[in-house]
Design goal:
Number of strands: 0
Distance between the termini: 160 Å
Largest sheet: none
Oligomer: single chain
Structural class: mainly alpha
């Protein structure tokens, strides 16, 4: 571009044109505007390519995020099922523990009542036997 401006400047100087500087400045501005528009066009195209490639890269990213979120929901649901099963097992164990403690409590109460009756009867029998032995011993001592 500079070569063209130099050639035009030489022609204008040789022809004796009075507004050479103005013409050179206008040509320079025209060339500068052409370069700016060309650079903007290239920049816009490059920007479009970057955005397009980013958008193309974002499509698998969004699919990946969707799959990851579905996997997270499935894992959360599975975790809740496991937690629910654990609580059901604990609930069953608490029911079983309560049932066993009730049975032991009832049986222990019955056993203690039976044991107290048995001990009372044993004490009565023992008392009767002790009384019989003392009477027997007294009769034996009376014989001698």
């Amino acid at each position: 571009m500079l070569e063209i401006l130099e050639d035009v400047g030489v022609i204008l100087v040789v022809s004796g044109h009075p507004n050479i500087n103005l013409l050179v400045l206008s040509l320079l501005l025209q060339e500068l505007s052409f370069l700016i528009s060309y650079s903007l066009h290239n920049f816009a195209f490059a920007l479009f390519e970057v955005v397009r490639s980013g958008f193309v890269d974002l499509l698998p990213l969004s699919e990946h995020c969707e799959v990851e979120s579905k996997l997270f929901v499935v894992q959360l649901e599975d975790g809740l099922h496991v937690l629910h099963a654990l609580f059901e097992g604990l609930h069953f164990l608490f029911k079983l523990n309560f049932l066993v403690s009730l049975i032991v409590g009832v049986l222990a109460s019955e056993l203690f009542q039976f044991l107290s009756i048995f001990l009372h009867l044993a004490c009565l029998v023992f008392g009767e036997v002790a009384l019989g032995l003392t009477v027997l011993l007294e009769e034996l001592f009376n014989l001698f």
